[in-house]
Amino acid sequence: MELTAADRAAFDGRPREIDYDRRETLHYLGEYRRELPNSLNRMMENAYDWEHLPFVHPTSFADIELVEHGSWGWRCKTALPNNGGMQAVELLVDKPRHYWATTVVEGFGQGVEIHTQASENGDDGIVVSVNFYLPQPPESEAQGQMLLAALIHQYATLYDEDEALMTSRQEALDIRGKANGRKLTAGILLGASDAFAPEAASLLTVSGCRLILRHVEGNWIAHAAACPHMLGPLTSPDIADGRVTCPWHGYSFSLADGEEARSRCAALKVARVTENEAGCLVLEQDL
Ligand code: FES
Ligand SMILES: [Fe+2]
Predict the structure, then answer these.
(1) Left if phi > 0, otherwise alpha if psi is -120 to 50, otherwise beta: which for 263?
(2) Ligand 1 centroid to residue 233 C-alpha, Å
(3) Does 251 contact ligand 1 (Cβ within 6 A)?
(4) I need a surface site. Which of 2, 85, 116, 192 has the fewest CB within 10 A?
(5) Domain containing residue 50: CATH number
(6) Same domain, residue pair 172 and 200
(7) Is the pLDDT of residue 90 over 90?
(8) Which domain holds residue 168?
């Protein structure tokens, strides 16, 4: 998707701070409330993370291009699924309050604002209160009810998907924390080669570090199980053009040298693996 001058101009003159008073001028449609087992840190990180939208939420977003971002939030051009057209979308963050406001600046649903408050929920994670505002009142009570039901349905799916991502990311952070910089060094035995299916991506935990073992073009290789970008799971058995693609932001890593296709993050650590005389797989390089 290309960004044009008009895509950028859609945001001209807009402030970078949430104008809380504006809510008074909008029609309040209703709320979606959700308890999540995640932390406020993971939730705020998720709000800032524009790049995951089409990958983690494919039923709501088909594509995204960044116009600008910062500690204040982000502005993007997004494509809706099923050729549903383009939108200019802005998300402004009030970080100290754990509050963010998403506005459809242009395109389908123009003027809709979605205000979200995340709060601690005792010892059990957080609760998010998602509040939907329309630029004008709906034509009828029934239309408003239908719209609210559709939004609640959509947001339930979005938060199911985000809960899975945030939980998996926290697990990966905890594993990395426990590994405490420990590396797998060349010479480590990974197990008998006939214990691993060549068509699979086998997840192994060795000395507290997780790695993936694959058979690629006749050779065994190993790579880190967590994506070098934000620790997404690189566990898919699917390889295309010698690359593995992360499900969280679509970064794609060469299994030959680990480089990301567009150099968007550090390279993935990839190591050669050989089979010794006893039929055991041996890591040939540090990982
Ligand atoms: S975590 Fe972002 S692309 Fe993998
Ligand atoms: Fe999300």
Answers:
(1) left
(2) 8
(3) yes
(4) 2
(5) 3.30.530.20
(6) no
(7) yes
(8) 5-177
